[in-house]
């Protein structure tokens, strides 16, 4: 398996390129519109054919590159089940597995940041957590039908039941962290460690974070799979 972590500095977003080296086919997870040419150049240099763009959720902080990549490469756009994106080619529900050569990408429903959100477990070892579980943190739950209690349940009952050595690759990091593990987060994640469900809900309800700068343009564009024109 080829696995690359790519970064958008404006929004601190991670995009993940995963590929099967035998078939030379690839998946991009959470591509960013402004980084599409970077991603296409890397695909070209590595001799990879893009088959799927996979979204963890409908983003509020950046516009997805899926529409542009779909137009340029003919790849398919995939979003979580019940996501408000009727333009998607496919929806993935909890437990469903996307196969591409030797790659097996299992969807794990992790709502809470938004009302539809998937983490993706790649070949049983690499967990792409989107905006659910972050390194020593978690995604906010105060807009887009977010729900702190549902997020707590998803993290503790689904992600934290995976083996401790499972590698955690988040959708964002604002401090320069790149990778963690389930075992590390169970021990050191300050949002979750030592808190029960009620205490977590109270904490998340008092964060008082400003809205993402691009929320007004990003959400409607991402509901069109990243197409900027209405």
From TrEMBL:
InterPro entries the record matches: Metallo-B-lactamas, Mito_Persulfide_Diox, POD-like_MBL-fold, RibonucZ/Hydroxyglut_hydro
Cofactors demanded by this protein: Fe(2+)
Keyword Cell membrane: no
UniProt GO MF annotations: hydrolase activity; metal ion binding; sulfur dioxygenase activity
Pfam family, one: Lactamase_B
Superkingdom to which the source organism belongs: Bacteria
Gene3D superfamilies in UniProt: Ribonuclease Z/Hydroxyacylglutathione hydrolase-like (3.60.15.10)
Sequence ranges assigned to domain Metallo-beta-lactamase in this UniProt record: 12-172
Keyword list, A-Z: Acetylation, Dioxygenase, Hydrolase, Iron, Metal-binding, Oxidoreductase, Transit peptide
GO biological process: glutathione metabolic process; hydrogen sulfide metabolic process
Similarity section: Belongs to the metallo-beta-lactamase superfamily. Glyoxalase II family.
Record protein name field: MBL fold metallo-hydrolase
Organism: Nostoc edaphicum CCNP1411
